[in-house]
Every structure is written in C-alpha cells, then in structure tokens.
Amino acid sequence: MSFSAYLRKKTDPIWQAIFNHPFPRGMQDDSLPESKFRYWLQQDYLYLKDYARMFALGAAKARDLETMRWFAKLFDGIVSFEMDGHRRYAQRFGVSEAELEAGEMAPTCRAYTRELLYTAYEGSLGELTASLLPCLAGYAETADYLAAMGIPKNPFYREWIEMYISDEFKALGSYCAGLLDRLAEGAKEEDLAVWEDRYTASARFELLFWQMCWDEEAWPV
C-alpha cells in the first residue's frame, strides 16, 4: 500500500464525517441556505490566498525542475483560476472583490492557515506535501460522493460539484498523492510519522472548516 493510500485509509472516519456533514450534504439535496454558502465563499477566498502561498514555498523547496513546475503551475491555477471563480460567484451574490479582500478570517480558518503556513515555512517538502493533500484531494472526493447521489438543481451547488469532479481538478490531487509517495520512498520512519501528523491535522481542519461554515462562525468579541 502506498503511503498516501495508507494515510487516506487510516483517516477514513474523518472523511466519512466530511461526506455526511450537513453542509456538503445540504448542497447536494438543495437544502443548504445560500447565506451559509456565501459565508463559505468569503472564508474560502481568504483561505486560498494562504493556500496559494504553500505552493510558492513548495516550488522553493523542490529539488527537481518537474516538481518545481508543478508547484508553480498550481500557484498560478489558484490565484488565476480558482480565486477568479470565487470572485465570479461573489458577483452573483452581490459581493464585490473589494468586499472579499476586506473580509476577516474566522477563528477556524485562521487556525487552519496558520498550521499550513507554519508547516510550509518550517517543515520539509514532505511535510508540506502531506499538509496540502487533504484539501487538494478531499474536495474532489467529497464532490464525487455528492455527485453519486445526484446533481443538485441550485446552480451554485451544481457548479461547485461539477468544478471539483472535473478530470482537471482530480489530476491535481492524484499528482500530489504521487509526489508524496515518491518522497516517502526511503524516508526515515520518524519523518513519515511527522508527515502523517501533518496530513491528519489538515484532514481534521477540513472537517472543522465545514463546521465553521455551517455555524457561520465569528469572533466572540
């Protein structure tokens, strides 16, 4: 079993909790209030700004040109494609780009991005890749799970699922998993244990991110 497959299997209870969380399930059955989706849109936009920085740091840590190109391509894809999609979504909700930029991270979003950036700055390329994988592969797997139950009628939710089940997006997660597996070959057991911790933390934060959006979490003061 590959290292990435081992991580996915070990953390399956987390992923099952994500698949059956009321937020993604609400998208699938059209029951999710659009105010909650709008909250996700604003928080995910802020999240993606720091997530993109992870790929820039990954390119800097890469030891070969192919890996460097992949990280650079993903950095451009997030800032030029995925974030642009969020801006288009926001316009349809009557939210301007300036409003997106001026938004404040909720506590869980801030904690998740600080965890990612700490790993990217202080950790190895293996740690960084393990931290990235749950978000990159998890959205595709979640969208697949939802699509199998039927595509929703709400255009926002339908487009969300269709974007993340696309072959192009799935390929990104597959490459990231493959890169982690290559890095794991011959790695020390103590390093693999750290990478597992980073992956697990990100998977848990993915679940907490959905809960944050469901609760429309805000700072108490």
CATH topology: Heme Oxygenase, Chain A
Strand content: under 5%
Which blocks of ≥5 consecutive residues have pLDDT under 50? none
Order of helices and strands: HHHHHHHHHHH
Global mean pLDDT: 93
Q: CATH H level: which superfamily? A: Heme oxygenase-like
Shape category:
globular
The CATH class: Mainly Alpha
Q: How many DSSP helices?
A: 11
Q: Biggest sheet, open or closed, and with what strands and sense?
A: none
Please tell me the CATH architecture by its name.
Answer: Up-down Bundle
In short:
By secondary structure, the protein is mostly helical. The protein has helices at 3-10, 12-19, 22-28, 34-61, 65-92, 97-102, 107-122, 125-147, 155-164, 167-184, 189-215. It has a single domain (3-214), classed as Heme Oxygenase, Chain A (Up-down Bundle), CATH 1.20.910.10.
